[in-house]
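Section 5.1 Outputs to date
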Amino acid sequence: MRRSGLQLVISTNNEPQKKEVTEEIKTVEPMFSGRDADLWPVLTDVQMARIGAHGRQRKISAGEVLAREGDLATHLFVITAGEVELIRPSEDGPELIAIYTRGKFTGEINMLSGRRGFVTIQARTDGEVIEVTREELLSLVQTDSDLSDILMRAFLLRRLELIAHGFGDVILMGSLFCAATLRIKEFLTRNNHPYSFVDLDEDAGTQELLDRFHIDEGDIPVLICRGQIVLRNPQNHEIAEVLGFNETIDSVHLRDLLIIGAGPSGLAAAVYGASEGLDVLVLESDAPGGQAGSSSKIENYLGFPTGISGQELASAAYAQAQKFGAQVLIDKASSLKCDRKPYKVEIDGGQPVSARTIIIATGAAYRRPPINNLSKFEGVGVYYGATPMEAQLAKGQEVIIVGGGNAAGQASVFLANTSSKVNVLVRAKSLAQSMSRYLIRRLEDNPNIDLLTETEVVTLEGNGHLERVSWRRTSTGEVTNRDIRHVFMMTGAVPCTSWLGGCLILDDKGFIKTGPALSREDLDQAKWPVSRNPHLLETSLPGVFAVGDVRGGNLKRVASAVGEGAIAVAFVHQVLSE
């Protein structure tokens, strides 16, 4: 049985309601099934003693609320005696989710970030718990490898279960034929925030819910947060604010290192910087993972012989960075203030953030070809990533992929599994110079994929949604018209550097120049103020580094981006010691 996820106020202090919850659980399908040993590990007495050294033992009384749904996740509880229950609010009254007994512990991945919880934690009987604050928990997972493995595995799996069951504090109501709905789904999904989705095109019983919250057709898509706050077609930064993504972050605090961008290079820098004792803040405008986060599968990344999706890689790296104490602020950098130290970065949603050193990892966006009506169909037939979300929209239909890089190759193979046909359009005569050989072979051997070289899209047509596409063979001028509703654009790269405001030297394509690429004339123009030359990944501003796709000369590979992030941190230490 699946609930809509609407949050209701739960009274947890009277015995009759507790009995009612216990009876109700018999009729409700368990939320968490399988992998019990990993989801609900039982700690040994020795392990509990080690946790106790980081927290404090205290007694609990039956009916006592240890944490309420919607509260900031500030404490972990390890049960040493008695029973503790997790209660989920729902439209039909509270549901009993799980019962913790001796040796089990509460919490999921929001314990690392301090974001708001989704359940009420309540003492079922008299007993005792070890209470550990979030700060003490971070110290524990950084110093005790054995316990870190147990806690982190459980936290990650519990969040995956929440996502799989659509169990969170958010209901998204919208249409899959709406670009804004797709944007919000992607934002929540890539931020690993559980939510329920109500498809207004399919669910006939939604009118009552719309009427209850006074929602008109022009308000769609709508986000209902905690059953109380209604956001009408919100922007991503508004969602982040209401859901409290940034509540626990002190943006005024001066950091050792500010990392702008949470793609592979930025997350790598965060992991290495935080694990080496630096005070690290990551500023991300949308969601962790960057362009790589939208990749359906990365197969040439060291250590993953069966491949890993961009979303999985980003989620794991994000949790790893938080484990070591790095914080992530979801907001957009609007300008760099470089006229004095410490450097400051203006952000859209609040006060500027400042740091002694900065790593810029803002990446690059896919180039938008000069095609009429392109912007009209973005999100409603034209996409810039091929995740399971877009694959579901195009299931059983013919699609086009524009681009000849590895991302386009992976997307082609991925979509060929569910689409009726995949047309890959590239302007070059072959893929040899732009795509890895193993991907080229897969495209050539897949009967569901047609590779069209020396070909470009010329027109897009449709009424509200893309319906028809025309492409042209540049060698012959022949034009083909097809009824196709889904086009995936993965062409070229435009660096995300417009916000820098002239503070850094860029190359002729707008990428940031670093290290040896900076000529003496560049340094003279920038008025380079120190006697040494710039470090390998250092920009024309001392203490400001650039890594990943935003850097001129960068290799377009995930492994390269991760390596650059790690290398930059080594130079950050040198700058901080100057």
